[in-house]
Design brief:
By secondary structure, the chain is α/β, with parallel strands linked by helices. The chain has 16 helices and 13 strands. The strands form 3 sheets. A 6-stranded mixed β-sheet has the order 6-7-8-3-9-10, with helices on both faces. Strands 2-1-4-5 form a 4-stranded antiparallel β-sheet. The protein has a 3-stranded mixed β-sheet with strand order 11-12-13.
């Protein structure tokens, strides 16, 4: 391989925290198609940001993401990672330094979980000892006990466990950039919520630069530092924080994509501690509780599911520091409790 691409790959792979991604006027025009799949897409993603691409099926969001690791080659435009032109690099080598997680997971059925996670480190020439240590570390990180899971095969795991392995495999070489295409879309709602929470915990400690494609606006609000709402040909209708998009949608298209229940969606962004907590005694008769680190949406869901009039609020030392009820949640958003109750399905 030419020296310049080698040098650029070393510079990219040598950084394990997030890297700057820049796309400038990127276009994808398929042969014999009158309209481009992606047209003049430009975006700057800061190191460590988690960016959500959200839009309807066929709008070009997955195509745009796949051009970053060159699974799809752009027709024109430029893409760089930390200032290095990815279009000048060997595509196969480039992909080994970018984490990639998809909905179908793609685990090799004839390989053990440990062998699946070790695929990229082996391609990069890691020693057996270093690879084994990394596999053990990652299984622990994603909540799978190495002694129980390392030697199992994919068919012996649940869908949620397989998704955790998929995330671990993408993290194996400690890439600065991760691309995620509907990674939790095939799981049931409860498993999906657990995976989202686990993913946020991981990102808080790892600080990767992540492009995450989803069609689920609620997922985008819950996970993203910023959200790009895309329309046909990956045209950016709005690119902003979840709070700003919910509060000030740029146009009717964005408003329609957000849908009903904006107040409920905003609850994900607000911590329990933003509410005026009631006395601890108001919730001592129920075993249900929320943590001070939870969101008001978590509290609302727990109140609805348990039917309790109030929930205990516990701090990080598991001490009860107060209670929360529907009225306290409503007061934060300025929405009446009956309205909240009617819109929880949104």
């Amino acid at each position: 391989m030419p020296k310049a691409p080698n040098t650029a790959l070393i510079q990219i792979s040598g950084k394990t925290s997030g890297a700057l991604i820049e796309l400038n006027n990127v276009t994808k025009q398929y042969p014999n198609q009158p309209v481009a799949a992606v047209e003049n897409f430009s975006m700057t993603v800061q190191p460590g940001e988690l960016i959500m691409f959200v839009g309807p099926s066929g709008c070009g969001k997955t195509t745009t993401m796949k051009m970053i690791n060159r699974i799809i080659e752009p027709t024109s435009g430029s893409i760089s990672i930390d200032g290095r032109d990815v279009l000048s690099l060997n595509p196969s080598e480039l992909r080994r330094h970018i984490g990639y997680v998809i909905q179908q997971i793609g685990l090799f059925p004839h390989m053990t979980i440990a062998e699946n996670i070790a695929v990229v480190p082996k391609l990069l020439g890691w020693t057996k000892e270093k690879t084994s240590d990394r596999v053990q570390e990652l299984l622990t990180t994603v909540g799978l006990e190495p002694g129980d899971f390392a030697h199992r095969y994919p068919k012996q795991l649940s869908g949620g466990q397989q998704q955790r392995v998929g995330v671990a495999r993408a993290l194996a070489a400690d890439p600065p950039v991760m691309l995620m295409d509907e990674p939790f879309g095939a799981t049931d709602p409860i498993t999906r919520e657990k995976l989202q929470a686990e993913f946020l915990r991981l990102q808080a400690s790892l600080g990767k630069t992540i492009i995450f494609v989803t069609h689920d606006f609620d997922e985008a609000v819950r996970l993203g530092d910023r959200i790009a709402v895309l329309s046909n040909r990956s045209q950016i209708e709005q690119f902003d924080t979840p709070a700003n998009i919910l509060t000030n949608p740029a146009n009717e298209y964005v408003s329609s994509f957000i849908g009903r229940g904006t107040a409920i969606k905003r609850l994900v962004l607000v911590p329990v501690t933003a509410a005026k907590l009631g006395p601890a005694s108001a919730a001592t008769r129920t075993t249900s509780f929320v943590q001070t680190t939870d969101s008001l949406r978590d509290a609302l869901d727990a109140l609805v599911l348990t039917g309790a009039s109030a929930l205990a609020v516990r701090d990080e030392e598991n001490r009860i520091v107060g209670s929360i009820n529907m009225e306290a949640i409503s007061a934060v958003l300025g929405v009446e409790v009956p309205l909240l109750a009617r819109t929880t399905e949104n």
